[in-house]
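User: My collaborator sent over this chain with a note saying "see what the structure looks like." That's all I know about it. Can you take a look?
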Amino acid sequence: MNGVAETTGWTTWKLHIARYRWHRGADIDGRRLPTRRVRIYCQNPHARIVNDPATPSEPIDQLRDALAERYLIERALGAGGMATVYLARDRRHDREVAIKVLHVDVASTLEHQRFTREIQLAASLTHPHILPLYDSGEANGILFFVMPVMRGQTLRERLREDGRLTVAAATRLAAEVADALDYAHRQGIVHRDIKPENILLHEGHAVVADFGIAKALVAAQETSSLTRVGLMIGTPAYMSPEQAAGEELDGRSDLFALGCVLYEALTGDIAFTGPSAAAVISRRFVHTPASITASRSDVPAWLSSLVDQLLAREASARPTTAAMVVAALQQPAGSQTVQAAAAPNSIAVLPFLNMSTDADNEYFSDGLTEEIITDLSNVRALRVTSRTSSMQHKGSAAGPREIAHTLGVRYLLSGSVRRSGTALRIAAQLVDAAEDRQLWGDKFSGTIDEVFDLQERVSRDIVTALGLTLNADEERRLGA
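Assistant: Without extra context I'll predict from the sequence alone. Here is the result:
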């Protein structure tokens, strides 16, 4: 099977919707989802490969005439929602190439000069894990770009055959994709459509296709005066919440999609599914995929934690750059450091120690731990380890680095509670386990009647020490 053909060779579908409402404009997880005219082009991840696609939107004879001097068009390889890929021979260099041609109805919504100008950025990308762009342009109204023909599978086909990958294979491929993303992001290019179909497996290594194409399409559509219909690029199952909400994107949107791909590669299950495109899109706003370790015991905790970080709903809770993901995935097995595996703003609240003479006050220190976990969990920019995971380290003699590594976090909050009659004293310390240093520490005194105020003061001081800013809703919840 031809690798390039497979990037667009899945049966796809289009939604041409005059008035498309996601959840009827509902406010989901703080976002007002757009109510607007939109044309969505997306891939169906469950469809079968099409080796003999239906008649494409661009008659092959018309294409042959338009490109006759430069390319010999042989046959159609695959048809997608936005384009058809043809196998051709480059007359000048006497080599096989794949020519991707935008469908007429897509091209008609674009400002052609802007598209051809923007696509030149993709041609400038040079990276071992990015499929290069040989040529691009417009011929007789046809927009096209030319890529090499790479023999091999896509990740989608590999997953279809094997169900899921070994931990080593999934980790290595994800690191290679993240490396490609890091390079492209530093050039100002967000892919917008990372998915198994766009990851080619060449000589056992990942090669990402369609870099820069989405950016060119969006830019060319924004400047077009030919249509009032918006063009949204992406695949529902892998689209980040901010992309689904039509917000401004940066590289962290691609990291969410990479998290979806890595989740699927390790479990064999798609992280977000539903009976329709709208259902799949809304799913990421209300659903948290089951932990990988719940279904696969050989996946290390740090890797499961990294996937959780990549799938964070808020971009601010994900790793800041793809380079951080590469560093996490390329550590030797069994020696992953906290810096690599943990998101920048990730914390575990360890069980507070009962320093009272009365052992019956143990319930009080445990309750305080749980309340602080609840408080900090309301801060969207902060990823907080669950109470169940934190409580497993009660009384542990392990050091901060080891505990943080096990929980996949960067910061640890520990403390103690001393109660004498109605008097209460709380001591707390915040440690950066990655750097093995204390960031903050303080003592809080009061009475049992003031315990909730003391708890709130601890939580607010932690937020301040981490340099986070609360929005109005978070302020209200923290003071509740």
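A starting point for your reply to your collaborator: Confidence is low (pLDDT under 50) at residues 1-57, 223-230, 333-341.
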